[in-house]
Write a structure and sequence with these properties.
Largest sheet: 6 strands, antiparallel
Order of helices and strands: EEHEEHHEEHEEHH
CATH architecture: 3-Layer(aba) Sandwich
Helix content: 40-55%
Number of strands: 8
Oligomer: single chain
Structural class: alpha+beta
Mean pLDDT: 90
Strand order of the largest sheet: 1-7-8-4-3-5
């Protein structure tokens, strides 16, 4: 599980060094893609192992292009995902179109978020998340607990 955060520099080629504490959780085959959020202004990237990508998006990837419900999702997810690997210096090269999408510059914020790593422009992260605090987290946590309880009740009943 990836957790914690790091502020890293990005070189002129678009590479950053992956923090030591996360290297053991990354496989040889990685996928980097648009970050998925319910907020349109959240422009970040997600880095994950290929197996995680397959688990999260395998149903969409295997759906028919003629299934209109999933065709747009399939096109969006797969056309914006790139296979990447760490180089011998444990650096990751971010494809240029993804750098542009997330408006990344010479520094990035990395967040371990369970089974993936988020990559953010520090300024955009600050603007988009400045109002999130412990009180907001507590309210979100309570909502999640209620949702899980309701789901468990539906499953039992």
């Amino acid at each position: 599980m990836f957790k914690g955060s790091s502020r890293n520099t990005v070189d002129t080629k678009g590479r950053f060094t992956v923090p030591v504490r996360w290297r053991g959780g990354l496989n040889e085959n990685l996928v980097i893609m648009y970050g998925l959020s319910d907020k349109a202004e959240d422009r970040f990237l997600q880095l994950m192992n290929l197996e995680t990508f397959d688990t999260k998006f395998g149903d969409i990837a295997s759906s028919s292009m003629y299934d209109s419900e999933f065709a747009r999702a399939k096109r969006f997810i797969l056309s914006n995902a790139e296979d990447v690997t760490l180089d011998k210096s444990d650096r990751l090269l971010i494809p240029q179109h993804l750098i542009q999408y997330a408006d990344l510059g010479s520094e990035v914020l990395l967040f371990g978020v369970g089974d993936l790593i988020e990559i953010w422009n520090p300024e955009q992260y600050a603007v988009n998340h400045e109002d999130y605090n412990v009180a907001t987290y507590s309210a979100d946590s309570a909502k999640l607990r209620l949702q899980k309880e309701a789901e468990a009740a539906r499953t039992r009943g």
